[in-house]
Specification:
- The strands form two sheets. A seven-stranded parallel sheet has the order 3-2-1-4-5-6-7. A six-stranded parallel sheet has the order 10-9-8-11-12-13, sandwiched between helices.
- By secondary structure, it is α/β, with parallel strands linked by helices.
Length: 476
């Protein structure tokens, strides 16, 4: 906890006064939350073997990042200057969202914003830019389905040179800044990382679209990611009238930092749309922006299906996060549970961003080796319908599963921070540290199921129903 606070304050010193988008794009300086996936990149700072570990870490990353710069430039050699040829004259509202898999391009509504674009100004006046998290190469000028454009993974050679040059210059500025030596040297190297480069690329492409379309409103998903702040800064540099709106679509996690950290005004949102009452109240208390610009819009994650009572714990739904670092511990736990409890069925439901084939390469026995383990290809609703309980760690999908009647069981890994999205309900919840703990939960299932009603009553405040009237409070 002390390490986390130290990293937050140290990185903030290098960010908060900056008016430079190249500094704001530095991925390492944005401390999201104390989650193993996010905090792994800071661990070397506290290594007990001293500066030698830091030195090796820095040298290794300099070599890797430099090689990736040359690879990116080589890939972009054939690219002409990025020029958007699509007619964007009717765009009134611009949305920055995410492409997690190629099938999403065929969906009528966006995975994150759902029907906000249509309710706010209408789909015909809305344009959605999708940050590409897939390995698919998609031409932004040719593949436009309805009102969607996929942000390219590489810009033109000239633009890629400019991005790399600016990030390298800021790396030298960071190296000579007034800050702890370990912090500033790491921050300098991370300035040229692929993540920092991508943050800036997304911002530059969004800036071009804003110049061409001149929208009145800019919406982004809002989780505290650096690219969000870069885009706000780019938008502010182009247009003084544009309103920058962050949709806090997920949960407000314990000790979450960068989502509510003040930067220079140009990098802050003008409005925050909250998905639930709990996050709404937290933003009000933080005094991040004016309270009348924090709006409780709600979410489509709220389940409309009534709670189903279950008298037996026979099928467990496993809900891992997208990153394999967090996916594997739950998968390994499931394998141990399946071997110990042959009469219980386990359904592993992967996050949309998780590559199924990569997981099977690491854990090949998941592919039909265990009769009581299923790697699901079914819909989320169907998986929930045939389950009685859910084992999870950091996945916010536990909210919807719990609302539909599944008993939540948190997998607590010793010597790791608590990343439970519904940690505030610990009084009523079960947790599992090792496979044997499931025996205790099954033996006391009557008491656990009684607590389930209390959990459901409390969990309603995490996501609330959409109230589109709140959108009318956004003004140019």
């Amino acid at each position: 906890e002390e390490q986390y606070k130290y990293i937050c304050s140290s990185c903030d010193k290098l960010l908060t006064e900056s008016t430079d988008s190249f500094r704001i794009a530095n991925d390492w300086l944005h401390v999201i939350r104390p989650h193993p996936i996010y905090f792994k990149k800071y661990e070397h700072i506290f290594h007990t073997k001293g500066f030698l570990i830091i030195f090796v870490h820095i040298l290794k990353n300099i070599f890797i990042y430099s090689a990736k710069i040359f690879i990116r430039l080589f890939k972009s050699i054939k690219n002409k200057r990025t020029k958007i040829t699509i007619d964007l004259n009717n765009v009134d509202s611009l949305y920055i969202s995410h492409l997690l898999n190629i099938d999403q391009l065929n969906d009528q509504e966006d995975f994150y914003f759902h029907h906000i674009p249509n309710k706010f100004k209408g789909n015909n006046k809305s344009l959605i830019l999708l940050i590409n998290h897939t390995n698919e190469k998609i031409d932004f000028n040719k593949t436009v389905l309805d009102n969607k454009i996929v942000i390219p993974n590489t810009l033109s050679f000239f633009e890629e040179i400019i991005i790399s040059k600016k990030l390298i210059i800021d790396a030298f500025k960071l190296a000579f800044s007034k800050c702890n030596l370990k912090i500033k040297l790491t921050a300098a190297v991370e300035s040229i990382s692929p993540s920092s480069h991508k943050n800036l690329r997304v911002g530059i492409f969004a800036k071009q679209v804003i110049k061409k379309s001149d929208p009145d409103f800019l919406f982004t998903t809002y989780e505290g990611q650096p690219w969000e702040r870069v885009i706000y800064g780019m938008a502010s540099s182009v247009s003084k009238k544009i309103k920058k709106i962050g949709y806090q679509h997920a949960l407000f996690f314990k000790d979450q930092h960068s989502i509510s950290r003040q930067l220079n005004k140009m990098f802050n949102p003008d409005y925050i749309l909250c998905s639930g009452e709990k996050s709404y109240l937290k933003f009000l208390n933080l005094k991040f922006i004016d309270n009348n610009k924090i709006l409780l819009v709600g979410s489509n994650r709220l389940s409309s299906v009534e709670f189903k009572e279950s008298n037996n714990l026979k099928t467990f739904l496993i809900l891992p996060e997208g990153d394999l670092v967090e996916c594997l511990p739950l998968v390994d736990l499931t394998i141990s549970l399946a071997e110990m409890f042959s009469e219980i069925d386990f359904i592993i439901r992967l996050h949309p961003i998780t590559n199924r084939l990569n997981l099977l390469k690491i854990r090949p026995r998941l592919d039909n080796f265990y009769k009581n383990i299923e790697l699901s290809s079914d819909s989320f609703d169907n998986d929930v319908e045939r389950s009685n309980a859910a084992i999870y760690r950091g996945s916010s999908s536990i909210i919807k599963a719990t609302q539909k009647g599944l008993l939540p069981i948190y997998y607590d890994i010793i010597d790791q921070p608590n990343i439970d999205p519904i940690y505030e309900l610990n009084e009523y919840k079960n947790k599992i540290i090792n496979p044997v703990d499931l025996t205790k939960i099954i033996s006391s299932q009557i008491e656990s199921l009684d607590n389930q009603k209390k959990i459901i009553n409390n969990i309603k405040s995490y996501f609330t129903e959409f109230d589109h009237n709140e959108l009318t409070k956004i003004r140019v």
